[in-house]
Specification:
The protein is α/β, with parallel strands linked by helices. Among the domains are: about 110 residues, Flavocytochrome C3, Chain A, domain 1 (Alpha-Beta Complex); about 120 residues, Fumarate reductase/succinate dehydrogenase flavoprotein-like, C-terminal domain (Methane Monooxygenase Hydroxylase, Chain G, domain 1, Up-down Bundle), CATH 1.20.58. Helices cover about 35% and strands about 20% of the residues. It is built from 16 helices and 21 strands. The strands form five sheets. Strands 1, 2, 6, 7, 8, 9 and 16 form a seven-stranded mixed sheet that branches. A five-stranded mixed sheet has the order 17-15-10-20-21. The protein has a four-stranded antiparallel sheet with strand order 11-14-13-12, covered by helices on one side. Strand 1, helix 1 and strand 2 form a beta-alpha-beta unit. The structure holds flavin-adenine dinucleotide. Flavin-adenine dinucleotide binds next to helix 1, strand 2, helix 5, strand 7 and helix 6.
């Protein structure tokens, strides 16, 4: 692996062609697209089926019906993005959607059906046609099972419970990754000619989130630290309907099936915010509507409004919304057949991510990204529901194909420099030995409440500057904090410490982006600049790492199909 052989080998393989980090839908789809003649491996910090993709509920969009067209799906996606999506990329996503869904169907995904046997489709937010294909409200699980079985059948190598800490760059291109083998605590280097990140979201930055504990934005922060720019980080999606308390998601499919939102005055308030689409308006609009009702005193005492499904009937609720039926009973003791479900907005998705093109390519040769960690950008300022699962399949495949082409064209990867490995080895040894009274827990907790309170649905300069101040103090505290577990084996304390560092880096890109974008667009709402300002801000912001915090750059938005218009629903 290296001349002196100091770095431990992970297995007998000296080098991989394509290394995929992340075993969610994007990672598995990427690996399945890699030419089987190449040596490919997938790394995941958790057992693969714990990837968040498995939790996806409501659906995946594709214009399948003869009356529907991919161009209409593209228009809805671009309008939903508040015109910040790169329109050529959004068109690619929507044009490829029917192929992607039919491919999953042929590979064995058990979609729900219409009486005539065709794949069932339901309404979703901001869509002009019911085009979300679904498997009850467990769509992610159905899709994942298909890809996982296929990956097993094709003997795709998966290194489970390997925690990637760093991207190795040598001779101006990617050369592999450094990762902690969680079971032993060893720091290993895994050389590869091409690396694809499919590491998912960063919801743990927020106190109220539908995301799992593992959604700590590792891939974004690792790419950012390696000099690859992040894009559109100020755009964070808040899902309108999560259960107060744990913020477990109640799928938009519940409103797609006809659920009503009611305030404490029993008023279907969406009529005042989106008179045409009502409850199935895009998420940014519904979340702000709910927050406004609560802030103006028309919510319930627990900071919620009600989602009423009772008129849909027991049969529909128990069969097409079976998971949320269980969730409401398990987590709130509420049977949605008989009582409305309390809901409040919670962080759900990051529109921003590692800046990529439609082939998943980044500014670093040989390095690709796909899925939630990437910003292609097809979602722009606001992602439409059921477009993310589609994004993972379409752009995961694109990244796998592009990495294959890269391997055909480029020579062997340069060797992994020993110095970078030693630096990380020293850093981890120092951390394990450091006994400081402050641990990651209070730092992460403060970060999460600060982001929820100051960088949430409604933002303004004062609150964003307050968040900037808190973040600076937290970064300082982090430098002096330590771990309680100094051991090697399964040291989750150390991993959580490293994840907290990733979250702190990412939070500063969100806050700086939210400060510099003095307009309201999609999910980014500034009370002090409540209008969209295309003259000044119809552009992407890019964030490049520096020791003093993110350096903000710009990139144009590709307007290839539809001129920006006012966005009403
Ligand atoms: C509750 C919920 C419901 C949703 N429902 C829908 C829906 O109905 N429709 C829709 O379109 N979208 C939905 N979404 C969004 C969508 O599910 C996600 O955006 C998408 O599945 C992300 O897939 P991914 O492959 O990018 O990442 P993930 O599935 O999150 O996988 C990330 C992978 O990266 C690995 N990883 C991360 N960091 C490291 C590291 N440091 N080292 C090694 N491995 C690492 C993890 O182990 C994991 O395997 C939902 C999201 C949530 C939270």
């Amino acid at each position: 692996m290296t001349s002196t052989g100091k770095i431990p080998k992970v297995d007998q393989t000296t080098s991989y062609d394509v290394l995929v980090v992340g075993a969610g839908l994007a990672g598995l789809r990427a690996a399945l697209a890699v030419d089987p003649a190449l040596k490919c491996v997938v790394l995941s910090k958790v057992y693969p089926v714990r990837s968040h993709s498995v939790a996806a509920q409501g659906g995946i969009n594709a214009a399948l019906d003869p009356e529907d067209r991919w161009q209409d799906h593209a228009y809805d996606t671009i309008k939903g993005s508040d015109y910040l999506a790169d329109q050529d990329a959004a068109a690619f996503l929507c044009q490829d959607a029917a192929r992607a869904v039919c491919e999953m169907e042929h590979w064995g995904t058990l979609f729900s059906r219409r009486p005539d046997g065709r794949i069932a489709q339901r309404s979703f937010g901001g869509q002009g046609y019911p085009r979300a294909c679904y498997a009850a409200d467990k769509t992610g699980r159905a899709l994942y099972q298909t890809l996982f079985e296929r990956a097993v059948a094709q003997s795709i190598a998966v290194f489970e419970e390997f925690f990637v800490v760093s991207l190795v760059v040598a001779e101006g291109r990617v050369a592999g990754v450094l990762a902690i083998e969680i079971a032993s605590g060893r720091l290993v280097a895994i050389p590869a000619r091409a690396v694809i990140f499919a590491t998912g979201g960063a919801g743990m930055m927020y106190a109220r989130t539908t995301n799992p504990y593992i959604a700590t934005g590792d891939g974004l922060a690792i790419a950012y630290r390696a000099g690859v720019p992040l894009k559109d980080m100020e755009f964070i999606q808040f899902h309108p309907t999560t259960l107060p308390g744990m913020n477990v998601l109640i799928t938009e499919g519940a409103r797609g099936e006809g659920g009503y939102l009611l305030n404490a005055e029993h008023d279907r308030f969406m009529v005042r915010y989106a008179p045409k689409l009502m409850e199935v308006a895009p998420r940014d609009i519904v979340s702000r509507a709910i927050e406004t009702e609560i802030l103006e005193g028309r919510g319930f005492a627990d900071g919620s409004v009600h989602l009423d499904l009772r008129h849909l009937g027991e049969d529909l609720i128990r069969h097409r919304l079976s998971e949320i039926y269980d969730f409401a009973i398990t987590y709130r003791g509420i049977n949605p057949v008989h009582d409305p479900i309390p809901v409040q907005p919670g962080q759900h998705y990051i529109m921003g991510g590692i800046a990529t093109g439609v082939e998943g390519q980044t500014t670093l040769p040989g390095f690709y990204a796909a899925g939630e960690c990437a910003a292609v950008s097809v979602h722009g300022a606001n992602r439409l529901g059921a477009n993310s699962l589609l994004d993972t399949l379409v752009f995961g495949r694109q990244a796998g194909l592009a990495a294959t082409r890269f391997c055909r064209e480029e020579s062997k990867a340069p060797p992994i420099p020993e110095a970078g490995w030693e630096e990380w080895q020293d850093r981890l040894a120092t951390l394990r030995a450091r006994r400081a009274p402050l641990r990651y827990g209070p730092i992460r907790a403060r970060l999460r409440t600060t982001m929820t309170e100051n960088v949430g649905t409604f933002r303004d300069r004062r609150r964003l500057q307050a968040a900037r101040g808190v973040l600076a103090a937290l970064r300082d505290a982090y430098q002096h904090a330590g771990v309680m577990d100094g051991g090697e084996v399964f040291n989750y304390d150390l991993l959580a410490f490293l994840e907290t560092g990733f979250l702190l880096d990412l939070a500063s890109t969100v806050v700086e982006g939210a400060l510099v974008r003095e307009e309201s667009r999609g999910a980014h709402w500034r009370n002090d600049f409540p209008a969209r300002n295309d003259d000044q801000f119809l552009k992407h912001f890019l964030y490049t790492w520096s020791a003093d915090g993110p350096v903000v750059g710009e990139a144009p938005v590709a307007i290839t199909h539809y001129a920006p218009k006012p966005r009403t629903y």
